[in-house]
Amino acid sequence: MTAASRVETLLARHWRQVTILTWLAIAAYWLWDHWGGVYWLALGDTDDNMRLMQVRGLLAGQGWYDLTQYRLNPPQGFNIHWSRIVDLPIAALILIFKPFVGIAWAERLACGIAPMLPLSIAMIALAFVMRRLIAPSAYALGFVIMLGGMSAMLMFMPMRIDHHGWQLAMLALTVAGLADERQARGGAIVGLATAVSLSIGLEMLPYCAMAGAILTLRWVWDAGEARRLTTYALTLGGGSALGFALFASNANQAMRCDAMTPVWLSVLVAAGALLFGIARINPASRGVRLGLAVAAGAIIAGGFVGFFPQCLGRPEGVSSELQKTWLNNVREAKPIYQHPIRLSLPIAALPVAGLIGALVALWRARSTPAFARWMPVTLFTAFAVLMLLWQVRAGPAAQLLAVPGATALAWLLVPWCLGHRLMAVRVLGSVAVFLVISGTAAGLALQFLPAGKPSRTTQIVQRANARCASIPALRVLDRFPTTVMFTHVDLGPRLIVLTHHYGIAGPYHRNGDAILDVHHAFTGTPDNFFSIAKAHGARMLLTCPNMAETTVYRAKAKNGFYGQLAKGRVPSWLVPVPLPKGSPLRLWRIDYR
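Request: output the structure for the sequence above.
Response:
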């Protein structure tokens, strides 16, 4: 037996151990590479900062079902629409590390390690898929390709503690369930992964719906798939009910549209009951099965329209003003073709290769039993690619779901190149094929495109964003007695993480009134700011000159309160408070006398 054969046999026989060791190696490297971010508690996203605050509240004794953030918009606090599911691993790691390193370092280490935990689940699920669809050892190549999908990998890296990594892991489990030959296990995996994902948040709702549609269509085509659909229906309804009972916050008991509330619980339980019923009937005629599936879909859709008409628009349910000034301007919510090629090409390269690979594999398997396993995976991959035409934030999911198809394509083309009679094809061709399929070539190609140096304004904004959110800049505020600080919306979550002060707002849609108050205060007249700040009980004003959010204030109202402040026109009721030399922040005491 050759060395290559021994390695292939080892990979095939010990795939679980190899997968875990590979994950540990990736995690160790990432932790080393991001150690600076761990040291400085560099939670770059507002949601990551808010997640840590939710965990702190839980560990401090805040109620399990109370997800109100009382450090923003006091005294009533800020209503956060999340669940406790993602808080649990972070809290557990903090409790484990705290006796050995103290609370500050325990938080740092937990924030560094927790995001990498769901990557292990995603890798096991993808390895499961690739072993069954391609070859027993193909998963090793798939892991290398997976690392080329940087949009997806960024969701698992240290300090990215929000829920996206866990939802991507549930998505990978969904693919594993779709590809599983064992019907009961496959259906249960898809149903439970869907229930967990939606209990975390509704971001993956379109993918969850598509997975259910694929399983239903599979049963329509083949009555022998009834057991898979039955177990899916039971675990979908039961898992969703359990997730709601265990994790739905007090605020999510209302008939809201943006989280796992009674609205979506009703839909999921009803869908599970209907699918269970038609699968148990399981008529022999394909036409009758199709009719039952269509009827079930019509009942679910009609019931949703009839009982929950308030949810037919945007699920956030914000005012038209907030939607126009805030939500509609979120870059990630725009389709991929509206973004520059330097952003869109690296995101789309791997998904496109994955779809091509899945289609090729499906065609090659057309006369074999593997066709039934490749079909649902191919449909799911195609759906993920189409989602990019809706919102570019679908990039991480599209890249992760592309891994099986891209691996299948590489598994076909790389050996062909290696066996070619020309050395140039064997060497250069193999490398080129791998780079193109993994999406790495797209990133390299951008090096040859005219990038254009960032403007001076852009550089100034980027520098302000980074410096104002840093520990050295914000920790000095703790020398002042605890108070309510009126500051920018995007700085609010970071302020409460790094200081003992209170803020007014954060970028969370359920608290649109507070967000608009901040916008109106900074863009209106000085007198308007004064009255709004007083109504919120703010005693200090904290600004970050040239922060991205401030450019919006100045563009919208050049002579508004912030525009005047930026020009040095300070009202008499603002008393400057000195900060250390070189501080990027500006601080004033608001004198209400």
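Residues 458-590 form a domain with the Rossmann fold fold (CATH 3.40.50).
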